[in-house]
Specification:
With 73 residues, the chain is mainly alpha-helical. It has a domain of 36 residues. The protein is built from 4 helices and no strands.
């Protein structure tokens, strides 16, 4: 984002009544949340596990089966 755009936004924020600033902050939080939902970051360790399973042709983990096995032990 350019400094010109930031200055314009900042100028507009300063002109708003203080009662609306909380709404602006909530809207910014919403936009941040929405953006993060559209572009989720997958951790490298997770990508490595999936990649290794594909290479080794391993079956996906059955979490319910794992829980049942842990309860038996």
């Amino acid at each position: 984002m350019s400094s010109t755009t930031l200055n314009q936004v900042n100028s507009k924020l300063k002109k708003l009544p203080e009662t609306l600033l909380e709404d602006v902050e909530r809207y910014i939080d919403f936009l941040t949340f929405k953006y993060n939902q559209d572009t989720p970051e997958i951790p490298l360790w997770h990508k490595d596990i999936v990649s290794n399973r594909i290479k080794d042709s391993q079956e996906p983990v059955d979490a319910f089966k794992m829980i049942d096995e842990l309860e038996v032990e």
